[in-house]
Design goal:
Elements lengths: L1 H30 L3 H15 L3 H20 L22 E9 L3 E10 H4 L1 E10 L2 H4 L4 H17 L13 E7 L3 E5 L2 E4 L16 H11 L4 E7 L8
Length: about 240
Amino acid sequence: MGKLVVGVSVVCTAAVVCGVAVLLMKRRMKNSGEWGKVEALLKDFEEKCATPVGKLKQVADAMTVEMHAGLASEGGSKLKMLISYVDNLPTGDEEGLFYALDLGGTNFRVMRVQLGGKEKRIVKHEVKEVSIPQNVMAGSSSEVLFDFIATALAEFVATEGDDFHLPPGRQRELGFTFSFPVKQLSIASGTLIKWTKGFSIEDVVGQDVVGELAKAMERAGLDVRVAALVSFSPNQIQ
């Protein structure tokens, strides 16, 4: 603790010293008449580095054209495009209990949240992070991976306290973030194009990852429906 305090103190002191030094240098240059030259030089540098608004508009228009082309046909654009079936955004009126599962690396996270609409917004939320063993990430099978995930999710659901309320007759809903290249088939289905981030389970490639998770949750005795699949995977489709 002592070392931490000393370290923070040293950093703060260094920042103060640097600030004072800059102020002194600025005052000295003003007194010598050099500060005006520095300001002019900086302004000239800023103007030369600025991108003209017309050029920025050209770039934006070109990207828009490429995005439309990519959505119109597979391989029709220089940009890597994958269709998303999300057709609207949250309004803030949402109420009830919802679950989320985020798989995107050596760990995955599960979360539950109680939404209270615009008045109460997020009433309560809880998160749990689970490490995935190396032997499950690579060289295993689809069943091994998704059974591991479903078991951890079932254990998390089992700890649901009285602060979370599921309306009678309503099934628990899950949002599934799968951060790997996926070709979505609907709002709640998509086939894996390829693995990244150290994962290597061949029998999952080309399969519907939501379907695999649903089968694993059924084997775990977990009554949860995947309501939406979200694939966030930048720089991974080559």
